[in-house]
Amino acid sequence: MSTTLSAHKKKIAIYAKYLFNKAKSECEHYNNYHRFHTGIILLHDAVDLVLALIYEAEKLPKGINARAYESMLLDIDENLRKRKEQLESKTDLQVLNQIRNDVKHKALFFDASRYTHLPGQVEKFMRKEMKGFFDIDFDALSLRDLVTDDSHKKMIDEMERLLEVGDKKGAIVKMAKIAFDIFEDPEFLGGTLGRILKRDRGTLLPNYDKPVIPSNEATVKLLELGIEPQDYYYFKELTPSFIWNNVDNRPECHWNFVSDIEDNWTEANLTFCKGLVVDLIVKCEEKRSRFETPHDFLECYEYVVEPKGEEAIFYKYEPDVPEGRKLFGLSPKKVVEVHKLKKGEKLYGVVLNLYKSELTVLSEGLPHDSSTRLGKGFVRADGVMLKKRNKKTGRITDLEL
Prior knowledge:
With about 400 residues, the chain is α+β, with helices and mostly antiparallel strands. It has helices at about 5-25, 35-55, 70-80, 90-105, 120-135, 150-165, 170-185, 185-190, 190-195, 215-225, 230-240, 265-290, 295-300; strands spanning about 240-245, 250-255, 300-305, 310-320, 335-340, 345-350, 360-365, 375-380, 385-390, 395-400. The protein folds into three domains: about 5-140, Four Helix Bundle (Hemerythrin (Met), subunit A), CATH 1.20.120; about 145-290, no CATH class; about 295-400, no CATH class. The chain is built from 13 helices and ten strands. The longest helix is centred in the first third of the chain and has 25 residues, at about 35-55.
C-alpha cells in the first residue's frame, strides 16, 4: 500500500532526483578522477534521502543509529522480506555506501571503471521504490514543481517542449534567454543601478551592454544563491550570450565558438543545462521570497551637481586617431567638452565613482540623442559640489559622504 507524501516530503523527493541527475552527469566522466568521485558522493546523498522517506513511511523504530544509511537500508529490506518482497539493487546500494565512506572519511580512492554501473542501479532503485512506496512516477518529478511564479513555469514549459520535439538549438537559445532574464539582466545582477538604468539602455555603463559573465560580481551572486560558479560558467560555454542592443532596445543572441558547435549539444550537456536553469529559477525565487528588496539611495534620491566656482566643465573621451590611420588595440584619448555648467545652475541625475578624482554623471541635462533619456559626462570632483534631492518631496539637502 503506497503512502501519499506531504508537500514538504515531496520537495525532498524532488531534491533527491535533482541530486541524482547531478550525480549521473558527473559519473559519466569516469575518466575524470575528481568528477567521478564527486558523482559518487552525490549519488549516495540522493539514495540517503529516498531511504529516509521510505523509513518514515514504513514507521520503522528510531534507534540511535536508525537514520544512518546502512541501518535504514537493512531495516527497510528486512521489513520488505516479511512481505516476501525485496529492496531493489540492495547489494549495489551497499557497495555505494562503502566506497562513498572510503572516499569521504578515509580518503581512499578507487578505480572508477569498476563502478560505472552504479548510477544505473541507483536509478532502478529510485524508480521502483518511489513508485512502490509513494506511487510517484520518477520521470514526473521535476524542480519545476518548486517554482511558484507562473511566468517562470511558462519559461520551463517552453524549454521542455523544444527538447521534446528535438529542437536542440531552440532549446539552448531558450535556456540562455531564461538565464539572462532571471540572473544576468541588470535588474538583478546590476543591483539598484541596474534597476534604475534598465529603462535607459542607451546610456548604460559599458559592462551592461556586453556579456556580464564571467565576472567577480557574478561569481559572488552565484555563491549567494547556492549555485556553483564553475557549473554556471560551463553552462555559459555551452549556450549563447544575450546582449542588449541599445539601438533597438532589446536583447539579442550572440553565439560563441563553443555554443555554436552541434557536437556539444549532447544529451548529457542538454540535461545539465536544463537542470541548472531550473535550479537557478528556484534559487532566485527563494532569495526574492526570503528578503524584501531594501530601498536604495538611487530609488529615494537623485544627486544634485553644482559648480564650486564660476563654472564646471563636463567632458567625454574620444579616440585620438589621425585621419586616414587605422585603429589597432588601445588608442590615445582626447578630451572633448560636452557641457558647461555655470554658477547657479544644477544638474540632476546619477553620479558614479564618488570617491575618485573624476566623477561620472548621468543626467537629462547633459547632451543625449532621442533614443536615450540621459546624457553622460565626466567632471573633476574638486570642481563641483554634490547634494541630494528627495524624489518624493523635492527637498534638497547636503550629501554626507
